[in-house]
Amino acid sequence: MQDVGLTAEIARLKEERNAVVLAHSYQRPEIQDAADFVGDSLALARAAQQTQCDVIVFCGVHFMAETACILNPTRTVLLPDAAASCSLESGCPASELASFLESNREKNYYVIAYINCSIGVKALADVIVTSGNSQQIVAAAPKDRPILFVPDENLGAWTAQKTGREMTLWKGSCHVHQRFTHDQIMRAKQQHPDAEVVCHPECREVVRALADCICSTEKMIGYCRKSAAKQFIIVTETGILHRLRKLVPEKLFIPVVIEPCGCAECEYMKLNTLEKLRNCLRDMSPVVSLPEDLRLRALKPLERMLELSQ
Ligand code: 13P
Ligand code: SF4
Question: Is 59 left (phi over 0), alpha (psi -120 to 50) or beta?
Answer without folding.
Answer: beta
